[in-house]
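Thanks for the sequence, V.! I ran DDHD1 Phospholipase right away. Repeating your input here for the record:
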Amino acid sequence: AGLPERRRPGGGRPRYEVVRELGAEEVRWFYREDRKTWKPFIGYDSLRIELAYRALGAGGPAEPRESEAAAAVEPVCVRSGLYEVDVASAESYPVYWNQTEKIPVMRGQWFIDGTWQPLEEEESNLIEQEHLNCFKGQQLQESFDMEVSKPVDGKEAIHSLKLSRNHVDWHSVDEVYLYSDATTSKIARTVTQKLGFSKASSSGTRLHRGYVEEATLEDKPPQTSHIVFVVHGIGQKMDQGRIIKNTAMMRDTARKIEEKYFSNLATHVEFLPVEWRSKLTLDGDTVDSITPDKVRGLRDMLNSSAMDIMYYTSPLYRDELVKGLQQELNRLYTLFCSRNPEFEEKGGKVSIVSHSLGCVITYDIMTGWNPVRLYEQLLQKEEEELEDRWMSYEEQRLLEELYITKQRLREIEERLHGLKASTISKPPVLKFKVENFFCMGSPLAVFLALRGIRPGNSGSQDHILPRTICNRLLNIFHPTDPVAYRLEPLILKHYSNISPVQIHWYNTANPLPYEHMKPSFLNPTKEPTSVTDSESVSTVPSPTTSPVMVRRHYGESITNIGKASILGAASIGKGLGGMLFSRFGRSSTTTPQTLETGKDGAEGDDKKATTVGTPPFPHSSSGFLEPAVELEHRIDFELREGLVESRYWSAVTSHTAYWSSLDIALFLLTFMYKHDQEDTDKSNLDTI
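Predicted structure:
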């Protein structure tokens, strides 16, 4: 500690003037994922791994000894707490999810000039040992400059070390070169030396002792203020590690955006994958056993993906899927809080990002929706219909008796439930409040429509997801994603004619905040209520003949051609929607006649329309409401289409294109950092 220090000209780590053993801060630990290049741990992680390594090796940089010490040294928590390093086995593994491939870690002492990649540990240890044996206690040169690799022309090696495939020459204490002993390298060396080049400058690789930056405990990751659970959709059985890779992509993309736009904030958002599918047994192998052998590959793919939707609609397996996701969410939250006790104390927030079918299951967990409730409502409706028709005296008497018995049964059930509730307090479904629920490529709107949800007359999110359960619902989709549907028209019907909010490109300069963006109509010229289904289809070109719609940017007016093609698509969609609603909604009055009546019919329907908590089987689907009614917050957000992408090709790829999108990463962080950003701006203004 008392040795003289000297800083590098470039302001790097301090260098000692006398050769001594490497300090813990000069060593750097590395990890390698997917057999790629070695990546350095940040200073905070590296220093703690090195201290654990030295504790294991009884205080010196010698080989760690296998003893009770190995058991005594606890794993070191690294990479923002997502991974742990077992120093004894030189491996790293994730904390919150299972991974078959272990991540190797390596201790770096000697490094290659320029790239600062570490030399393999065995070679590095041999070179370090030789260096200390020969030069320990010797003075370093005053002119030593780490940043510039000077050629060592004319200097003979003062020391040499033979390794298995290479050899190392010391031209001075500070000038160390590694040479390959392969035949081709020897020939190249001979030729270049005959041409007058020195051995070192022609084929040697300069080595540096100690890493380019000193490891400090100050070089640590910011504290996590917000955790995001990333929930997968269908197809996880087919590729079990897919959600882990997708979440890693989303995390890496978010890190880039954080560095670029949110570096002034002292906290960060952490993404955790929620893998709920692999633990479920469901039907075992029954479905596989009834699958024919022809085109087996395609059938297996469908069994592993589309089958999840059938499982979810099955009353036998639905609960298993719901419990699987619910338990995994609670397990991850409990584990995270046990490892980060200050998270809840400091008011840490939780958001959920769900994809595809995962959106529907997450929604059902949060709201507690159950198909049994729908069945009870259906029975109630049938009872009401029975009461309306003519009945004999005997039928009436029996119905009254049945009604009184049901009433009595309900009272007994309530009393029993009250007794149970007083002795056993039922734990909440989720152990945390959801701040934001982001749906990506979500079919949730279709599921809600088929459950009988119809537009109301209030612009509140509470109509489909109460704010007491989740503060904000946001539905993100790619315009060509065939699985994604809009949610806003389920709250206010006229929003089917208002375009979704366009998500900003991540590199847009000074983008307009989303809450200040005004709704823009898809078809501002005509009121959709005044156009009948037959008229709208006949007066606009069909999608097969109409020209390709021009690319829409926010704030630009849509060209007439674009308007026509959108109106064509909207009218066909409306026709299909009408068919679906009349088929599944049991809507008795939704006929072309009611649509043709125009505004009067719409007003008449509005009077019939029920309040915000619309029952699942309304007698009529209400007409378009006055455009004066607006949503409290926009819910549907659409990615911008690429300039050159093919519509049909992107329809195939868009459903899985969300994970690595920088635009989506910025969008997610904008909403999650909203309050932090506002607080920072406020404190900056106060300072001024």
